Amino acid sequence: MKTFNRITLIIFCISFIFTTNAQDFLKTNGFKWTDKKEHLCIVNSKKEAIQLCTKVLFEYSDFKEQPNVYELSKVPVFWWVKHPYRSSKVLIIYCIRYKDNYDVVVKEIEDKTQYFFSIEEENGEVIDLFYSKS
Would the N or C end of the chain have less CB density within 10 A of its end CB? Predict the structure, then answer.
């Protein structure tokens, strides 16, 4: 029984260290925790927003190349990756134009199909953004 408790404690400590490191990465890159239960960072330009999304993506995944970027959209980035430490979770990474800035958001969700929001583009097209479980 002592061995089982010791192994459980070791696993808990390792999980805690990984989770703390993930939060530290976001904090050191300017993200703040919001009341919407997501990490938010406000940047001045689309270029900065895309770069920050890419940095987060590469930190939490083994992607070697950047996925699609929709340069002409109000939401140029909407990506997801499996959570590195929780198999039942997914990280949603996106940026959206808001007033004169861009919001970069990292949100942890359950790994199930979920609708996020709709956005009307400059050309009048309405785009629904959602995560679809593979």
Answer: N
